[in-house]
Amino acid sequence: MRQIFFFSLCLTVMLANDFITKEEYAKMLYHNPRGIGCDRCHGEDGRGLELGRYKDGNRTVIIKAPDITKLTFTKFRQALITKDHRLMPQYFLTNKEIKTLYYYLTKKRK
User: Fold this and answer.
1) Hey, what CATH class is 19-109 in?
2) What domain of life does the UniProt record list for this protein's source (predicted)?
3) pLDDT along the chain (110 residues), means of 10
């Protein structure tokens, strides 16, 4: 009886589809990688949102998140692992997560 159960369990695991698709995983990472999503600053499409503005004498200074849709993978990865950002939090993403986020942005660009 145990052998039949074990065999059917193995067969089920081997034939099962992925729990979530690559697209769903990528979207999930973009919207909430580690507590605050990329979309909060870079927007749904990655082109950057206005984060704030202030007056400096007679001029208005606008703080805007950069457009991340045209970055090469190398520059995208470097931006995520660098600690030198003034506003962007450090996410401590794995290489697989970085590749998945880049996939998400390049897929949306097409």
Assistant:
1) mainly alpha
2) Bacteria
3) 61 61 90 84 93 94 93 91 79 90 82
